[in-house]
Structures are given as C-alpha cells and as structure tokens.
Amino acid sequence: NTVLYFLRVDDVTLFAKEEGTPRFNINDEVSFDFDLSQITINEASIKPINLINRINGSFIKEKVNKNEYNFYMKIGEHKLIPSNRICEKLFACKGPKIFNTDLVYEINANDLSVIQENNENTLSGKIVEILDYGTKKYSKVDIGCGIITVQYDGKFDEKINLNIDVDKLVEEFKEDQVR
Known about the structure:
Blueprint: E1 2-9, E2 12-19, E3 52-65, E4 68-75, E5 78-80, H1 84-94, E6 103-108, E7 112-115, E8 122-133, E9 136-142, E10 147-151, E11 159-164, E12 170-173
Antiparallel strand pairs: 1-2, 3-4, 3-6, 4-5, 6-12, 7-11, 8-9, 8-11, 9-10
C-alpha cells in the first residue's frame, strides 16, 4: 500500500510518498523533514547536490630498483596507493597499456573524510565554496586539478586534507567509458 501526502505552503505544493497504511487524516497537522540536498524545488531554485565527484587521473608506475615497481593512482599532483583489487582490475582490463590510458576516478562525497594530517591516500586542497542544506553542509574543495565536493562544515579558504578509501573509487577509462 502506497500513501501519497501533500503539503501546501502558499503557492508551493510538496509531496511525500510512504509505504504502508495511512498515518494521518485529511486536515491533520503534520510536519515533514526534507533532505534539502536531495530535492528539487523549481520555484525556489533549489536543486539536489551531485554527490558523485569525477576526477581526471591516471595509473602510474615508479621504479624502486631493477625488478621492483610501485604503482599509484595519480590525480593531479597527488599519488594514491591503490589496493590489490584495483591493480588487478586495471591490469585485467588494459594490461601494460593501462599506463598510457587516461582515467576518470569517481567517488561519492560521503565517502570522503576530512583529516588533520596528510597521509598516503590524501588529497589536499582549499575550500572554495560552502553549500548549506540545513542539517547537511558540504564544501567544494579545489585540489589543484579540479573541484570535488565533501560533506564537511568548513570555512571559505580553509586548507583541508581529504582521506580517500581507494576501494570506494570507481575507475573509468576515458576513451571507452568502461568501468
């Protein structure tokens, strides 16, 4: 059973859908909690935030000695240490050609966290915009090679470090859109 509620405020009508039996009667006084970051209200120019960050990058190797290499996911000037899963996936798809392939890395804004110190899988940048959605606040961060969004109540021009769980990154080959 699906119940459709609507709330009329001045000239704006808002709808909410709920599964189950109706909890309210017509003319009951009710309140709704809205996640403003995920709704569209055309009349108020409110649009949902895009939580998926797309960052151009590549996959590189650096020689340690005659027979040993270190592999990195390169995003701008940042080098992230990939997991074995990511290395296996990239080599399975492209083999050694992976080192000449432009990639796009995707990560959800909610999968990034702000940390105090720079570590091996950190992107550093400066906050260039604050997005206030009421109970949720997001910061747009310039990491030098692009702007990414993170759920963080920061200050404009604040320098921050973003910790990335590399296993939550999605890799896409730029030229053929394969993930």
